[in-house]
Amino acid sequence: xxxxxxxxxxxxxxxxxxxxxxxxxxxxxxxxxxxxLASKGSVNPSEVFLVMTYTVLGYMPTILSLSLFIAIVxxxxxxxxxxxMVIWFSSGRxxxxxxxxxxxxxxxxxxxxxxxxxxxxxxxxxxxQGMRNQYEHRSDIERVAPGEFRESAGRNRVFFIDKDTPDGxxxxxxxxxxxxxNLQITTSARSGHVETIGDARYxxxxxxxxxxxxxxxxxxKISEFQTYGARTGGDSGNSGDAEPARSLTTLxxxxxxTLMNLGELAWRFGMVLAGANFVLLALALSSVNxxxxxxxxxxxxLFAFVIYYNMINLGQSWVSTGRYGMGGFLLAxxxxxxxxxxxxxxxxxxxxxxxxxxxxRSPANESHA
Length: 369
Prior knowledge:
The protein is α+β, with helices and mostly antiparallel strands. Helix content is 57%, strand content 17%. Strands 1-2-3-4-5-6 form a 6-stranded antiparallel β-sheet. β3 and β4 form a beta hairpin. The longest helix has 38 residues, at 2-39. The protein starts with a helix and ends with a helix.
């Protein structure tokens, strides 16, 4: 049918262009953010592009929802401003007749939103968190760079070396400052090399000096050594901290319904429900007066999107703190938004007016009066 095909064709072009622009903007923002994390030592500089890619994949539900919303509002607004909607309305088509072709275009996007929100979002977060944890818990020797002071994994020791060999196993002019057993310990040596003893790695220092000073006094204990061993730290295993809820699979969240997990579930299910509601809201918000222009209407539509999206994030916090239940929040926010969208769409379709119309006085009535 000409009506359906022409509408879906224009929606496809608009959606594709909007998606490319939004992905480019988000990738640029994430690149700047990831480079900042890498400069602070939170992310491996060699994994910047990979971390950025995972982060963008995690934000795909929001990007797809916004692209779909903008594509529908922009397409229908243009049809209003170019008087194409008047032609369709005069041929017997109402605004409600646009629901079917728009949803037939949008359902693959809605499926992608559901897949990214329920599967892609936790997977991308778990990959990013895993890389950050692995880089954070690398051994102390791997942290050291010639000519730079570097902290250990536990933040209780500072290393410095003058220069090292290409394989990173031997260094000269080694300096280590640490706090152990309420003592400030400073160790320096002419050279050092790495050895693996059992499951641990040790830095064996040669021809050096060790200075110990209690934190509560000014006494000093100075000792010299020919060979001294210091464990480099850096556990190879995972940290003991609990995995964040955003990195857990949806099935794991359902199996362990804590408040934090329910808040995360409310966000994921909310993004899926919001995708369908955005389609209805876009249909209702797309009406434009050709004499006024569509810039104001687009700004109002984006303002509605921001409010709805922020309510989803705010609801996640409410559910996580136990202020509201997950089911009640989803029903109130998304069910209420669905009713508002349907009511607004019916008002546009049937041309209802909130104010009663004044009856016009005919000449016959005036003469009779």
